[in-house]
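Kindly go through one protein, given below as sequence and tokens. The question is how this chain folds according to its tokens.

***
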Amino acid sequence: MTSPTPCYHCALPVPSGSRFTAVVLGESREFCCPGCQAVAEAIVAGGLESYYQHRSEASANPEALPVQLTDELALYDRADVQQPFVRHEGDLAETTLLMEGISCAACGWLIEKHLRTLPAVAEARLNLSNHRLHVRWADAQLPLSQILAELRHIGYAAHPYQADRASEQLASENRLALRQLGVAGLLWFQAMMATMATWPEFNIDLSPELHTILRWVALFLTTPIVFYSCAPFFKGAMRDLRTRHLTMDVSVSLAIGSAYIAGIWTSITGVGELYFDAVGMFALFLLAGRYLERRARERTAAATAQLVNLLPASCLRLDSDGQSERILLSELRVGERILVQPGSILPADGKIIDGQSSIDESLLTGEYLPQPRTLGDAVTAGTLNVEGALTVQVQALGQDTRLSAIVRLLDRAQAEKPRLAEIADRAAQWFLLLSLIAAALIGLLWWQLDSARAFWIVLAMLVATCP
């Protein structure tokens, strides 16, 4: 019995009697379904049919991957390397891979279809929103390195994904801050229009009934801003009052809370001014400022973290006979010799004991031109070997390298405040204290002069002095 013809696009068996064909690379090819036929025709029409040629060459020669890449992938078959990101359930192993090169839904379809054709793969699901590939397979039949190699053959690089709790929490806080900012911005415009319509300057032929409706509409629109968007201000103010420490949150909370309460009173009685537009304005601009500041700090922190990620995960260690062996960077020790191939990142600080090359040290100096280095010269972890192969004797690893020292200095610079910032913080506390004292004194004065206007005068002062 002859085996069924594989689909030229997805390699699944072509059902008997199928008549889906297209001309690819000058020959008529068979497909399993009209979807594969349509995708193939679109690829050919777009002038991209060389994709099939490269794919065919890689499938016909599984060893076509570079030797260095094959050695790196083989490290993922070790149990100690898999322990952080591979889970075992019976005979099946389960992991999540972070994919590179995903551009559209067709990429996800191709990856899933290709992996599912492997006999040992029980499940392959790609989440297009975060580019994470969930795979379950029989690792006794198929090593993880072979799965990674198969993905490389079809043009996609995969890396083990390990959830970073700090990063996930930071992303969650960013989403919450962005939602609070969005709610404040959207509802403020509506509340402002409703509030402005009640002003005498715009109140043209406005009936008392409609005036009342607009006040309640403004109250309804402002309430989510106060209790959802402004929640961080009130939480911060409560924390600062418990610690007897004045910050901007105290002043902002007083202004927003007082304006909201005054708006409720005006909505019910029709007496006084509506400050709902001021509430929304404070919330929008303050939240926008905090969000932009947060993202700026995160970009700086991310740039610092990327310095550490420059170090490779593995390196080539030389034994006493000069034979190289690929090992994890954590297994490298001071005093050992390593071979650094052209185009590779130096994994440690050391001294060149054989060879000469040019080193891209833009990470350290900002100079984009590679610098010549020869026998006896010092080299630094994280820099790029550009030209020739180098034999380097390791002198510093991990936290002892110059790269780690740079990261520590950056962390220290971000954590410490300059003298001017400390002076500004103290001045802000005195400004807030004097503003609150002045508002209280003027409120008492106006209570003696005209008690009906005292609250509105104090509220106007809080709004005007709110930073």
